[in-house]
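Ticket #4471: structure output looks truncated?

Reporter: J.K.
Steps to reproduce: submitted the chain below (189 residues) through the standard prediction queue, then opened the result file.
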Amino acid sequence: MHLLTLHTHGSSNPLGISSNGDKLPMHPYFIFKDLVTILLFFLALALIVFYMPNVMGHSDNYIPANPMQTPPSIVPEWYLLPYYAILRSIPNKLLGVVGMLGSLLILLAMPLLDTSRVRGSQFRPLMRFAFWVFVSDFFLLMYLGSQHAEEPYITVGAIATVLYFGWFVVIVPVVGVIENTLMDIATDK
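Returned output as attached by the reporter:
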């Protein structure tokens, strides 16, 4: 999907400045180049699936199931750990599921929440700092999702969850307004 959109509309300037003069049209060379990349990806995927299927598995998967005993720690895969931490940080089960679903759906609101006139982060130092705050919070949630539901992790998980949602609802719009204001002040002089 990305390749079709990229080659239909052309590629843009890496600085985030859009200009029709900077775009490259679609050409058979680019199609061949993309197909080579896709075929190499499928080759690597086929090697893993057919020759090394257990390379990414967990050793707990080979323990025989015991219907009379719950495993001591049930932990989802690494890519689901932040959402699991959000689920556990909210005491109410229904609100935890809503929070976990909302943590994904809030990404759809980003075009509405980003109030900045400049879309790229190349010329936005405050947004770059805010982005790394978000990345740090995401990795903290990932770590907290892998820990047992004990007291220091529950409290830190609740704070990290508030920071996660606060980043989208508060920090992104406020940083956009601040940067727009600073840009207007700089252009008035």
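Triage note (M.O.): checked the attachment and the full token line is present. The chain has a mean pLDDT of 85.
Status: closed, working as intended.
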